[in-house]
Write a structure and sequence with these properties.
Length: 238
């Protein structure tokens, strides 16, 4: 380790210096420029202080997060993008150690967001991707669509008196892919194109559950053939 005095480190704008001398506890380690403290001693002091004031720290952190939610989410996304492996390991470890908390949190989120346009659209995208056997796409699934969640809801509910998609679900209606997903996956090779065709508004409609089950994966219905012609022309599919 390079030797550097406290004065030299301060002039260079460094946070630490090292002169090779031990602290009162015998640690021969770098020291902080601002308070002359040994790194090891200060680390132990922080852990000890944290242990004594754990509840107060957690309360203060929670208050900061609640008051700076957007800033906190931005920091979380930046950290996840820069440290994907660490973030994934930390998330998995938290889930393993807090199964009940995670379960309760998911239920709260579901009941909070289940009737929002974005949640409904994301759930349809998720089901569509699963049925098409699509893994992760190169972009966010919602960014591939030509419409917003609000436009999706307005289109699906037009001609009906339902206040939300959930109201339609509750009385037995389904959101139907007019051109069946099985047909799309067999006849289109590119994964992103499969998804875009399947989730095109022209390929989505709200129908009664029994009609959807009767239709199944058949393609000989007039409305299916019409939707196929339109979509194949729109996306230049041979």
């Amino acid at each position: 380790m390079k030797f550097i005095t406290r004065e030299e480190a301060r002039e260079l704008g460094l946070k630490e210096y090292f002169i090779g001398e031990s602290c009162k506890c015998g640690h021969i380690l770098p020291r902080r420029v601002d308070n002359n403290g040994c790194k090891e001693c200060q680390s132990k002091a922080r852990k000890k202080y944290w242990g004594k004031n754990k509840i107060a720290f957690k309360k203060r952190n929670r208050e900061w997060i609640d008051n700076n939610r957007e800033r906190f989410n931005t920091l979380q996304r930046d950290y996840a993008r820069k440290n994907p492996e660490k973030y994934r390991e930390r998330s998995l470890e938290y889930r393993r150690n807090n199964l009940e908390k995670v379960k309760i949190s998911k239920r709260k989120a579901y009941f909070k967001y289940k009737n929002t346009p974005k949640y409904k659209l994301k759930s349809i995208c998720y089901v569509t991707s699963r049925k098409l056997s699509i893994g992760k796409l190169s972009e966010s699934k919602l960014s591939l669509l030509e419409y917003t969640p609000e436009e999706f809801i307005d289109y699906i509910l037009q001609g009906y008196e339902f206040n939300s998609v959930q109201d339609a679900y509750d009385v037995g209606y389904h959101i139907d892919h007019i051109v069946p997903l099985s047909y799309i996956s067999k006849n289109i090779q590119e994964l992103e194109l499969q998804f875009c065709v399947a989730m095109d508004l022209y390929n989505l409609r709200l129908i009664k559950g029994e009609e959807n089950l009767f239709k199944g994966n058949k393609i000989d219905f007039p409305e299916v053939q019409e939707a196929k012609r339109f979509l194949w022309n729109k996306y230049n599919i041979l």
